[in-house]
Design a protein that fits this description.
- The longest helix is centred in the N-terminal third of the chain and has 13 residues.
- The protein has a single domain, classed as Monooxygenase component MmoB/DmpM (Phenol Hydroxylase P2 Protein).
- By secondary structure, the protein is of the alpha+beta class.
- The two termini are 15 Å apart.
- The protein has 4 helices and 7 strands.
- Helix 2 packs across helix 3.
Length: 103
């Protein structure tokens, strides 16, 4: 039988934890647009926002710019990125959160 600790430790949830603000809202918008086949989970903790999906989550620069309403370098996410779940891979004009190992 799985305990609450097991549910937290042994899951395949990945994604960014961002300081609350305009950029975090744009990341939510981009996550939903760029991952239409995924259920995106949002935890709003007032000071920060956790954006999560199972196995893989991709944020594309173009989508982020459309959601934000201005040009942005995808690496600007690092300024508001306080943490993340999974592994992270910067791929030119997108960032990918993922797991190689699955529980």
């Amino acid at each position: 039988m799985a305990t609450d600790t097991d549910k937290v430790l042994y899951n395949n949830r990945v994604g960014p934890v961002l300081r609350a603000g305009d950029l975090a809202q744009a990341v939510i918008c981009a996550a939903e647009e760029d991952n239409p086949d995924k259920e995106i989970s949002i935890e709003d903790k007032v000071a920060y926002i956790r954006v999560m999906a199972d196995d893989e989550l991709i944020i594309r620069q173009q989508t982020l710019e459309e959601c934000l309403g201005r040009p942005i370098d995808i690496r600007e996410l690092e300024v508001d990125l306080s943490s993340f779940a999974g592994q992270i891979e910067w791929q030119g004009d997108q960032v990918r959160f993922f797991f190689d190992k699955h529980f």
